[in-house]
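tokens incoming
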């Protein structure tokens, strides 16, 4: 199919293109998905610049969690290049002191040669409790973490700890925007999504029921439907 819309996809912490595999499969008939590598920089500014460097001149933009923070930074750096925006299981706020402490503890754990202990500690924050026994899902999450590696993880956590509060920028977003969140997301809870959807002019809020933080993998069909409507409204 010609005239596909370029779709830049931004993964979350310890994730790679596999986070978006169900969406790539479902949307690629009408869209041209491109997954950015967010493992090479230790700042949101650097991550956004790297993603912009590999992207076409104009594109739809979707980011989950950390990817959502990078998406908001892209909207600050190059809003004229983005035709549509989707923020999944993310926030516009800076880290809380508790979040920063947790990140420092996990970086220290990784530095002691226990990087493989990081993913199991994060799993309860990543997926709904009912999915802990889903071997395929858990193995995918572990495999993505292994691919990112200890140094990539350190860079990502450093960027997350130092990210700015972006709430004041939300009102300036002027493209069709989808804000999506799992109902039981404990890492970026629903009120944070509601806050963004209220602040972004004309934004649509989509809640995925019985779902945690990794909506794209936990509830791919529901997430795909929301993204398809967003792309082609």
């Amino acid at each position: 199919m010609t005239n596909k819309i370029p779709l830049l996809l931004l993964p979350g912490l310890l994730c790679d293109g596999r986070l978006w595999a169900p969406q790539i499969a479902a949307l690629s008939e009408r869209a041209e998905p491109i997954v950015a590598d967010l493992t090479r920089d230790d700042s949101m500014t650097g991550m956004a610049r790297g993603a912009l460097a590999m992207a076409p001149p104009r594109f739809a933009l979707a980011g989950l969690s950390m990817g959502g923070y990078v998406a908001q930074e892209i909207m600050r750096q190059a809003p004229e290049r983005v035709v549509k925006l989707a923020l999944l299981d993310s926030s516009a706020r800076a880290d809380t002191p508790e979040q920063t402490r947790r990140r420092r503890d996990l970086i220290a754990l990784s530095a002691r040669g226990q990087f493989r202990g990081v993913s199991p500690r994060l799993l309860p924050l990543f997926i709904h409790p009912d999915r802990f026994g889903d071997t395929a899902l858990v193995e995918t999450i572990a495999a993505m973490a292994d691919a990112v590696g200890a140094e990539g993880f350190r860079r990502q956590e450093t960027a997350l700890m130092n990210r700015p509060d972006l709430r004041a920028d939300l009102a300036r977003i002027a493209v069709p925007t989808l804000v999506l969140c799992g109902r039981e997301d404990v890492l970026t809870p629903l009120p944070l999504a509601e806050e963004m959807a209220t602040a972004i002019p004309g934004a649509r809020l989509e809640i995925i029921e019985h779902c945690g933080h990794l909506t794209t993998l936990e509830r791919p069909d529901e997430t795909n439907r929301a993204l398809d409507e967003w792309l082609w409204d």
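note: Residues 49 and 74 are 8 Å apart (CA to CA).
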